[in-house]
Amino acid sequence: MGSKNKLKRFSENLEFENVIQPDRETVVKNNFNFKGLWNKMVFKNENPIVIELGCGKGEYSVAMARENPDKNYIGIDIKGARFWRGAKTSIDESLENIIFLRTQIELIENIFETDEVSEIWITFPDPQIKLKREKHRLLNLEFIEIYKNILIDGGIINLKTDSEFLHGYTLGIIRSNHFLDLIYSNHDIYNQTGSPKYVTEIKTFYELKFLKYNKPITFLNFKVSK
Length: 226
Fold this sequence. Notes:
Helix content is 36%, strand content 22%. By secondary structure, it is of the alpha/beta class. It has one domain: Rossmann fold, CATH 3.40.50.150. Strands 1-4-3-2-5-6-8-7 form an 8-stranded mixed beta sheet, sandwiched between helices. Helix 5 links the parallel strand 3 and strand 4. Helix 1 crosses helix 5. The N and C termini lie far apart (43 Å). 35% of the residues are buried. The model has no long low-confidence stretch (mean pLDDT 93).
């Protein structure tokens, strides 16, 4: 993407009513205005909140918001030029149950209050395969403990990935921790039976690329107990 195009998208994001871009200092100091008040101040309803971490272009969040008007969706990514596409599509389709938030994932405890989120989606994250990069994996135990704090009791975490390594790594964490309960796991969702429709019917930009080369796509989800 050219620099001019990026600048244009950054500028348009500032005008979009469905984009929130708090400055880092405000979030770090735990002064984010909507923490604990997302339903009251932003969505103005009491519907469950579902967040997508590292939402990229926002295809998954937009598709879920389109199909589930009784839920509130928040696509989170630090790269605003990417989620511009999802934000614009949401505006064009008059979707009122979706917001895009530009912030770093490691700061989400300062974005959401305890028990404020019902479900988390993580789609095609960087698997960070090297051992020295383990702390950056979005499903390492440290991150899961953070998610546990903002999720309701029994909240669900979903992982869709092309990385068999990350799928297996996450299964190991689930089986090693009593507060995590596996719901479903599939190592090849398009070639094995039983995959939920909401997993196979929505495809991201990167997923379509992987499928073009017949790369297996995996999915799992699990409950998080307090």
